[in-house]
Amino acid sequence: MKLLMLPPQTEVTRAWAARLLAEVPNLSVMVAESLQEADALIGDAEAAYGALPLDLLRKATRLRWLQCHKAAPLAGYYYPELVEHPLVVTNFREIYNDHIGAHIMMFVLSFARAQHVYMPRQFKHDWMSLPKGSGTVHLSESTVLIVGVGGAGAETARLLAAFGAIVIGVDARRESAPPGVAELHRPEALDTLLPQADFVILTVPHTPATEGFFGRTRFQKMKPSAFFINVGRGKTTRLNDLVAALKAGEIAGAGLDVLEQEPLPADHPLWTLPGVILTPHVASRGPHLDERRFEIVRENCRRLMAGQSLRNVVDKKNWF
Q: Which of 116, 233, 238, 293 is flagged as catalytic?
């Protein structure tokens, strides 16, 4: 079988190519350093890694499998011709679960212990505390709504359950509740569940169904004391609506690792709005990721050659 590594290349992908040759018998690996090289090689490829432009797809007469280089690529990766093509696409979902779960807990614990209030005061050398009985969320008496109970959402539920929180999940695919999730619902139930939650956590990818699905109407269904956290994809949440909800006191705060516009403009109000914690799209970062990616590529090479089902198959029409 011939696997084409699509450009651009990095030291990591070049090292993967050498390892695949050594570790997967009967596999030939072609490394394209440019689109011109890829154009010359794509006709022989049965498998490919990376992003596949339309002009290359049209010449990919033997291609059966495409390994996406991300868990949830930016809009445009799944164009109509790729969706309709019979090739199977796989991605890197599940490898970030521990890192994203820890990042979500950073947001939850920061809000639960009023760090969103005390950190700005630290910068002002202000020792004043909040009045007794305010500023904390007792996690063992809290309800957390996780929208998207995939790998990262399930790991977050496990961590939250260890703190005693009641976790409610909403998921379009999962049929049974994973450990830590007290209730599992379909997406149609989201609006009825929002008023119950002290924290609403989004881990969903950007798909045609989730683009802009969290806006002002849904913020208004949340408790004024509730916190909104998004670590999925920025385009799922309308930033202008979030700003309006925060200014109106419709929610208590927001922890955002992903934003509808990245990087966030320097003059955007979210930088200075009280109750907002921002991180620059880093929730998935952590050790061992390159090795985890390689393991999926290697395993899928072996599975394809053996005629077995591939790992992390994507529903191309829904981008995930």
A: 233
**Helix (H/G/I), strand (E/B), else coil: 179:** coil
Q: Which of 281, 298, 303, 311 is catalytic?
A: 281
For 203-257, write each residue's pLDDT tens digit.
999 999 999 999 999 999 999 999 999 999 999 999 999 999 999 999 999 999 9
Q: What is the side-by-side strand order in the sheet with 227-230?
A: 183-185, 166-170, 143-147, 199-202, 227-230, 253-256, 276-278
- Max distance between CA atoms of the chain, in angstroms, equals 70
Whether the CA torsion 130, 133, 135, 138 is positive or negative: it is positive
Q: For residue 254, what are the contacts with CB-CB under 8 A and spacing of at least 6?
A: 227, 228, 229, 230, 242, 246, 270, 275, 276, 277
Query: What tokens appear for 142 in the block?
Result: 């809290």
Note if 11 is an active site residue: no
Q: Give all strands (DSSP E) within 191-290, no chain letters.
A: 199-202, 227-230, 253-256, 276-278
Domains of the chain as residue ranges with CATH:
2-94+287-318 (3.40.50.720), 97-278 (3.40.50.720)
Q: What angle do CA 231, 71, 308 make, to 5 degrees?
A: 145
Q: In the annotation, is 262 catalytic?
A: yes
Mean of pLDDT values over 25-47:
98
State the residue for tokens 């049974």.
176
Report the distance separating Cα 210 and Cα 22, nearest Å.
41
281 is catalytic: yes
Q: Which phi and psi (to 5°) does residue 117 adopt?
A: -95, -45
Q: Cβ-count burial of 271 within 10 angstroms (0-12 exposed, 13-18 middle, 19+ buried)?
A: exposed
262-290 per-position pLDDT tens digit: 999 999 999 999 999 999 999 999 999 99
| Total-model pTM | 0.94
Q: Which of 138, 262, 292, 295 is catalytic?
A: 262
The Cα–Cα gap between 168 and 183 comes to: 5
